[in-house]
Amino acid sequence: MPKTLTGAELQLDDGPAREAELFLVDGNNLAYRAFFALPEELATTEGFPTNALLGFTNMLFKLLSDYRPKGVAVAWDTRAVHRHEISEEYKSERRPMPDLLGEQFPYFRPIVEAFGYRNLEFEGWEADDVIATLATRADELGIKTCVVSTDRDAFQLVSDNVCLMMTPRGVADVHVYTPERVEARYGVRPDQVPDFIGLKGDTSDNIPGVPGIGDKTAGQLIAQYGSLEDVLEHAEEQSPARRKNLTEYADQARQSKELATMRRDLELDCDPAGLVLEPPDRSQLREMFRKFEFRGLLSRVDQLDEAVPAMPMRAEGTEVPWREGELPDARGRAGLAIDEGRFALARDEGVVVGTWEPELASRLRDGEVIAHGFKALPRLTMQPAEDTMILAYLIEPGRASYELDDLAREYGVEPIPSPATDDETAALVRHAEIPRRLAPTLLERVRERGGEHLYREIELPLTAVLAAMEDAGVKIDTYRMGEITARLADRVEELEAKAYELAGEEFMIGSTQQVSRILFEKLQLTPGRKGKTGYSTDTRVLRSIRHEHPLVEVIEEWREYSKLLNT
């Protein structure tokens, strides 16, 4: 996780993205990111590579299923005339597109169309300039927008209406930036990012900046002086070495800033308000998923219909009276929330908030308790009357999360604690009241899908069983576990010694590169497919060459025992 300038962990949850109506995706950036994030060995049974297509498609699926935007557009690069007019060196050191990615590239645009999204490309302009123009227009119209890109220069687009989603380690892990988060990380405002890159440079785009200036120094200088031009104007105030570089590379810094500045004024025949989702073409998606053998995605196609946003429900705030008190005996239906040693019990007459003790659980047994994620409530092993988290799951099994506040917004439930109180108490009151109001609506949708039997006869009873199991825990013989661990460690050492003997030298058995060098360069065994970092040494490859040398079987066994030891 990135850190702030003070070294604290930066909180980059995706909350801001969940408010976005429009998503603007840098297609080239996402395709490359997906290619390098997933193993090159991913391929169909006929050998066609699919790693980039799988990562790319998973992200498109995630946008629709998790965030339910009104519109999604994917912008693609064309020949970058504008920036090459500024500098012929721009992106000149980028490697050619890998062959395996090139094989997959013709299929990205058709997949975008099948999802109901828009492909955008305008001759002479890169995707980031197209996105910058549309994001700026959307910002002016007050449309909440999320830009999806890992390019650092995209930070300059962030505003009160525009957030930036980055995927540092594949689509499962997203970081979302707001203006405050950009400034916390780099010490500069989003509009100062071109100045920041003008000093620091950006090696990914061959933007040089000023030698000797890194992230921290660039952020400090821009924060102190306000702009690149003002930093250069005050170069005499810097240390001798820094003054020399700022003076000598001043023109280069100005050019770097110009290269890093996105164009926001392109004459595009495209209105961001008109980028409305079309319904996904399920038959086309199924055909593609079968072609590329995306079995997991194939089984989830029908979920996309539910993810297409309907007309938003109007959330009308309703005051909910609450008071401090002791937990009353539960009679009838009541919503329950417990957090940080406090409870809130919601009934028709209002909400009671007080201190929670495990002994109080007996007071709830005669009531019909409704909660969200009942299993997680402390020391409650009875069966709930309703669980809104389970209901939401049965309605949308492919959804990434079932946060109660997200569901409340989607279904127009907005309880307002009265009298007003601190944030923690207000959240506790809301989390008791929302399930009580939400449960009937969710239950009706489960009935419409024919899922009430599954809910009543399996899911709800299982909640109490799982809660009791987790509360009881499992006894572990730590002494015995220690003995097993020691034996595993001894076996790993034996295998390492044997491997060194067979290889004729010591090497890191856990290093793919070093194993590849020993097997395919030194011992001249039959190599498999060559990837970004050399020849593959995955399970399939080792199995196919096991008969060629005894070292291979030793490596396989070492991996097996090492995995057990580290589990």
Topology:
Blueprint: E1 22-26, H1 27-37, H2 51-67, E2 71-75, H3 81-86, H4 99-104, H5 108-114, E3 118-120, H6 127-141, E4 145-148, E5 162-166, E6 175-177, H7 179-186, H8 193-200, H9 215-225, H10 228-233, H11 240-248, H12 250-260, H13 282-292, H14 295-298, H15 303-307, E7 316-324, E8 333-339, E9 342-347, E10 350-355, E11 368-371, E12 386-387, H16 388-395, H17 404-410, E13 413-418, H18 423-448, H19 452-472, H20 478-503, H21 512-522, E14 530-531, E15 534-535, H22 539-545, H23 550-566
Parallel strand pairs: 1-2, 1-4, 2-3, 4-5, 7-10, 7-13, 8-11, 11-12
Antiparallel strand pairs: 5-6, 8-9, 9-10, 14-15
Helix pairs in contact: 1-2, 8-9, 8-12, 16-18, 17-18, 20-23
Structure write-up:
This protein is α/β, with parallel strands linked by helices and 567 residues long. It folds into three domains: 16-178, Rossmann fold, CATH 3.40.50; 316-472, Nucleotidyltransferase, domain 5, CATH 3.30.420.10; 478-566, Taq DNA Polymerase, Chain T, domain 4. 46% of the residues lie in helices and 12% in strands. It is built from 23 helices and 15 strands. It has a seven-stranded mixed sheet.
